[in-house]
Every structure is written in structure tokens, then in C-alpha cells.
């Protein structure tokens, strides 16, 4: 056929039409992979152990065969296409490892726009890999207290860093910033304005990091601090006002 549409197919034998002839034949136009539209964060990033999904729209491409495959650094990822029965599909990917993956989506053997996609799969969050250090998590004297401390999240997978502090009423605020753009090192500060006990609750995707909650006692004088350190008390829970900050990765 030279063009798509409804056609009649005449078949005869010895100049006599066969039973059922002419036959009705529907001819579809050629599929166009270039008209496929893929969308969603699941084309570019995801977290190991979590759903990685994207949407594929074939409505403008005509009939065809949609396929997807995804390959990781050493292992293939499982790909499943869910047909919504309206020429749109949900692609679900289940990687077996973290790292850079190559996602190839084809329609009738031709790659769709954007394919192959670079899919980065981050490791699952691991709070035990977060390292917190700095003078802000150590006891000190109010007049000379340095509240800065560092949360190093490299190797902890994708997650959300939350810092919440409890202390004397109205005594502080919390600030968080990256050391460098796209860095995994977060600089945190709070602003204590009176002596007392401060509890720093630091979590990675809902789980306490090693050492959290940190108990920091701030004193009026160096003599009080020295006496406290000499006694090595266990300390009691603080109360009062609370504040916090959140950082996503």
C-alpha cells in the first residue's frame, strides 16, 4: 500500500473470487520513534531500593513495539512497562546496584529522543556513614563559644540531613550551608545567647547519625567549664525552645 487507511484485498482463483473476498484490511502509517515523549525524574536519577519510574507517551507515534533495557556498572537492572491502555506507559526500573546506568528506550527498533539516558542510581541512605565534628558539638564557654560544626555525608547515600536543637528558651537559631556547590560537606551553625544545656539531634533520612543526640553544655566562665569536665557528669535532658534546619541530597 502507498498510504495508510482502509483497503480492500481482492483474491481470486481461476478468475473467480475466493469466499470472503474482498477482505477488509487496515493499513497503518509508519511509526515514528522521534514522536515518542519520555518524562520523569526516573530517566535521570534514582535511589537503590526505591521505585524509579518514568512516563512514556506513544500517542503521536503510531502503532509499534516499545522496549526498554537498563544496564548498570556490572549488572542489568530489571525493567517493566505498564500499559495504561491509552498508548501511554509507565516504566519501572529496579536496579541491582548503585552507580551510573545506561537506559535505552526503543520504538520499533529505533531509539526515542534522549535515548540512551544517563541514569544515576544513588546508594540507599546509611546514617552510620555520616561523620559529625567541630567545636559546635563540644562543651564551651559562652563568650568564646564557636558553634560551627561539620556534617560529612560522603558515602552515606542519598538522603535528607536534618538538624534540630533543644536548649534554653529563645537562645539560638540554626543555619546550614554547603561548603562547596554540589559538595557532600555541610557546615552548620547555631547562635546560643545564654548558658545551659543544648541537645543537637542530627539525623540522616530519619535515623540518628553516630553520636546523636549530642549534648553540649555552655557555661558562663572557663572555671565552670573546667569543673564540669573534671567531674565528667552524664548530664540530663534539656528542655525549652526548639528549632531546626533540613538539607536534601
TrEMBL record:
Which Pfam families does this entry report, sorted A to Z?
Filamin
Ordered alphabetically, the record's keywords are: Repeat
InterPro entries xref list: Filamin, Filamin/ABP280_repeat-like, Filamin/ABP280_rpt, Ig-like_fold, Ig_E-set
Question: In which ranges do the Filamin repeats occur?
Answer: 1-27, 28-121, 122-218
Cross-referenced PROSITE patterns: FILAMIN_REPEAT
Q: Name one GO molecular function term.
A: actin filament binding
Q: Which GO terms describe its biological process?
A: actin cytoskeleton organization
Family named by the database record: Belongs to the filamin family.
Any idea what this protein is called? Filamin-B
Q: Which organism is it from?
A: Macrostomum lignano
Amino acid at each position: 500500500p502507498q498510504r495508510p487507511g482502509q483497503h480492500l484485498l481482492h483474491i481470486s482463483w481461476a478468475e473467480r473470487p475466493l469466499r470472503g473476498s474482498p477482505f477488509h484490511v487496515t493499513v497503518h502509517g509508519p511509526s515514528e520513534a522521534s514522536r515518542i515523549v519520555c518524562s520523569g525524574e526516573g530517566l535521570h536519577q534514582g535511589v537503590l531500593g526505591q521505585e524509579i519510574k518514568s512516563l512514556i507517551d506513544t500517542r503521536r507515534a503510531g502503532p509499534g513495539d516499545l522496549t526498554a533495557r537498563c544496564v548498570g556498572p556490572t549488572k542489568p537492572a530489571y525493567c517493566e512497562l505498564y500499559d495504561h491502555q491509552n498508548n501511554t506507559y509507565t516504566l519501572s526500573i529496579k536496579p541491582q546496584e548503585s552507580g551510573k546506568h545506561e537506559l535505552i528506550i526503543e520504538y520499533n527498533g529505533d531509539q526515542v529522543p534522549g535515548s540512551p539516558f544517563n541514569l544515576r542510581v544513588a546508594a540507599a541512605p546509611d546514617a552510620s556513614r555520616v561523620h559529625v565534628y567541630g567545636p559546635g558539638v563540644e562543651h564551651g564557654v559562652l563568650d568564646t563559644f564557636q558553634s560551627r560544626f561539620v556534617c560529612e555525608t560522603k558515602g552515606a547515600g542519598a538522603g535528607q540531613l536534618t538538624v534540630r536543637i533543644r536548649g534554653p528558651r529563645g537562645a539560638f537559631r540554626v543555619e546550614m550551608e554547603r561548603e562547596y556547590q554540589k559538595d557532600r560537606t555541610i557546615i552548620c551553625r547555631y547562635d546560643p545567647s545564654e548558658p545551659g544545656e543544648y541537645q543537637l539531634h542530627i539525623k540522616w533520612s530519619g535515623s540518628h547519625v553516630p553520636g546523636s543526640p549530642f549534648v553540649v553544655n555552655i557555661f558562663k566562665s572557663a572555671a565552670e567549664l573546667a569543673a564540669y569536665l573534671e567531674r565528667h557528669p552524664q548530664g540530663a535532658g534539656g528542655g525549652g525552645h526548639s528549632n531546626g534546619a533540613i538539607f536534601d541530597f
